[in-house]
Design brief:
It is built from 3 helices and 3 strands. The chain is an alpha/beta fold. The chain has a 3-stranded parallel sheet with strand order 1-2-3, with helices on one face. The longest helix is centred in the N-terminal third of the chain and has 12 residues.
């Protein structure tokens, strides 16, 4: 509890499951996907758990995207 996390690939699959798991444990953080629009479902699910999270676009293969997400 009280941890801050960044979860990449949070729009589906393991990334979404990880985001939900850490949210249930009380972690706050950022969820990412290559497009913010892909995170709507994840953010809605996290909100139902009472999570303090927000989403941002991040493509780990693109250095400019990484810089933008980290700013």
């Amino acid at each position: 509890a009280g941890s801050r996390v960044v979860v990449t690939g949070a729009s589906r699959g393991l990334g979404r499951a990880l985001a939900e798991g850490v949210a249930q444990e009380g972690a706050r953080g950022v969820v990412t996907a290559t497009a913010v629009s892909r995170l709507e479902g994840t953010l809605a699910r996290l909100s139902r758990h009472g999570a303090d999270a927000h989403g941002t676009a991040l493509d780990l293969a693109d250095p400019a995207s990484v810089e933008s997400a980290a700013a």
